[in-house]
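haha ok so turns out i had the wrong file open the whole time. this is the CORRECT one, sorry everyone. sequence first:
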Amino acid sequence: WHAEGQKESESVYRNGELNGRQRTWHANGQLASEGLWVLGKREGDWVFYNPDGTPDDRQSGFYRNDKKAN
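then structure:
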């Protein structure tokens, strides 16, 4: 949770590593990111958002082995 009381993240862990869908939020309540973790690494399509809710195209894209592929 953020200090202001807003939810900061929803994450799934397996054996202490991120492993599953994750959503994060900015302190103002706007969605910050959503994507999939596999054994502690970002995989597949990830979407990141700026605090005003607009997409952050610089960070968004397809991830393989925790690295942006495009």
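The chain has a mean pLDDT of 95.
again sry for the mixup
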